[in-house]
């Protein structure tokens, strides 16, 4: 008996090696259930920690005290016209030393402090006159040193810190759909890579095996010998005359 086999056309027609379908029909979809798989993936999560409190305020008393001490020492060392320059140089050196001792926060460069102190000392020497010239040069050197140092080494604030960590996230992935469709009074279940909707196309063909082998005829493979019929009326069968013999044919009585 031949059987009619429906096959989902979307799946069967994609394979060229399969036998051609007799015709394509439409079947009603009863249900379409997604096949969901949970996938776990690592993910990096980063955030910014808030900035901390500003750096500790630098002490300005110690540089001033150091600058005054240095200026006094320089004025004692210098003689004549060089006394003003020695006072300014001592003020610059004393200010730098006093600042580094009171504010050991970092290895700050001293270029700005020296340049600022020299400029301040020259300006103070030009402003002052007489016995107050050395004091003006010292004050200018101290002020210029502090200003030059702060310009080159501004007081910074704590920067925000970025922190990161690896976390695992889980998401759902649709791998396909389990589809149940009804055709010719039967419910057929199959798997499809997408949601077919309300109907699905099916390819209908005939699935039949090869015919059964017929039984061999009687006597196939055996040798038989024909048996002559019995003689009529009890007489032996007549013998044919040999070919070429003369005379009359024998008769039976």
Short synopsis of the structure:
This protein is α+β, with helices and mostly antiparallel strands and 253 residues long.
Write up this protein.
By secondary structure, the chain is α+β, with helices and mostly antiparallel strands. The chain has helices spanning 9-12, 61-77, 83-102, 111-127, 133-152, and strands at 3-8, 23-49, 161-183, 186-192, 199-207. The chain has a five-stranded antiparallel β-sheet. The longest helix has 20 residues, at 83-102. It is rod-shaped. The model is unreliable at 10-19, 222-227 and 238-253 (pLDDT under 50).
Q: What are its keywords?
A:
alpha+beta; 5-stranded antiparallel β-sheet; disordered C terminus; 253 residues
SS field, number of helical segments: 5
First and last CA, distance: 66 Å
Shape: rod-shaped
Could you say which structural class the secondary elements and strand pairing correspond to?
alpha+beta
Q: Sheet bearing the most strands, described?
A: 5 strands, antiparallel
Strands across the major sheet, in which order?
A: 1-5-2-3-4
Radius of gyration: 60 Å
Q: Spell the H/E element sequence.
A: EHEHHHHEEE
- Number of strand segments: 5
Instruction: State the helicity in percent bands.
Output: 25-40%
Residue windows where pLDDT falls under 50 for at least 5 positions: 10-19, 222-227, 238-253
Mean pLDDT: 75
Residue fraction in strands: 25-35%
